[in-house]
Amino acid sequence: MSMESKGENPTGTDLNRQYCELCGKMENLLKCGRCRNSFYCSKEHQKADWNKHKQVCKEAEKPKCLSQPEPTQQPVRTAKRVQDEQLKCVEKQNYTGSNSSPNTVPLNQPKDDERTKDVISTSTGLESASDSTQTGEGIELSTKPNGQMRSPPRKYAREYIVPCMNKHGICVVDNFLGEETGLSILEDVRALHKTGKFTDGQLVSQKSDSSKDIRGDKITWTEGIEPGCEKIAFLLSRMDDLVRHCNGKLGNYKINGRTKAMVACYPGKGTGYVRHVDNPNGDGRCVTCIYYLNKDWDAKKHGGLLRIFPEGKAQFADIEPKFDRLLFFWSDRRNPHEVQPAYHTRYAITVWYFDGDERARAKEKYLTGGEKGVKVELNKPSDPS
Fold this sequence. Notes:
By secondary structure, the chain is α+β, with helices and mostly antiparallel strands. 19% of the residues lie in helices and 25% in strands.
């Protein structure tokens, strides 16, 4: 196996579609010197992925690779404002009511009498520029609250989240649970953090010090059934309720479960996460869902923006990690993203929802020695005991 620097892109491949085949990282890539079509962030990741890659790696009829690899040059990011209607805005609504190999857990099933208690905003129209905050070059997030009415989660999911995701691949929901509930979840998270159970965030298939150069968060995983996590469990049930009502209408996905919740803390001091893709290799994760817990967050002062680079667009979207904000986006290569350096403690809770068919294929192809956790299906909770 040999590798060469990405250089001048002789194959004509779109630079924005190049990722490390193992971890999804998009920076400082090296090209496979044999087929010249696949990329890795390091020789170690190329070696770790070889058993899979060798099935498609073929000798290219091109000059031999450079003997000494060099870091890639970053592609020029065209970031001018583009006013095309398709991605003019990433819509945001008010609703009052992320990687180690994840374990599959069931979607929580709420009681029937809990399904109609949420106050939501009904307007899904795009705000004018005068009523919006420019949070990226060419993508505006609506910041003006609209009129509210009572409506069940089913209506909200299908009339707002589904069309927003299918159009943009990104959906922002503000004031998801309300301040009182959000603060109680934050208390659970802070108490969990004080237990010392948080560890350095790791990359898939890699547990080494090099991870710290890519991501600087501290994380722990929870099902919400552990002592002191009752409010986190409530959050997960609310997330699951929305996703269940979207199921069958989000692209071609059939969601049948999700990961445990990853509770993450960026401890400030400029910690972040470089540009990457959550699911670059078809491991089953189709939707990333993040809930933010940061009161009075000021991006200009605290940093910590989540910047998403929608595939095929000259624009990017900056998502502030504001308190009680819920974010959905596609987990695959359509949404490369990065967490910019944070200079204040930044909390978030992330879950990934699985497409049943893709997850089954992934386990059949790549998992060996069984899978940790319990195999479950949508609406069929496992016995927590």
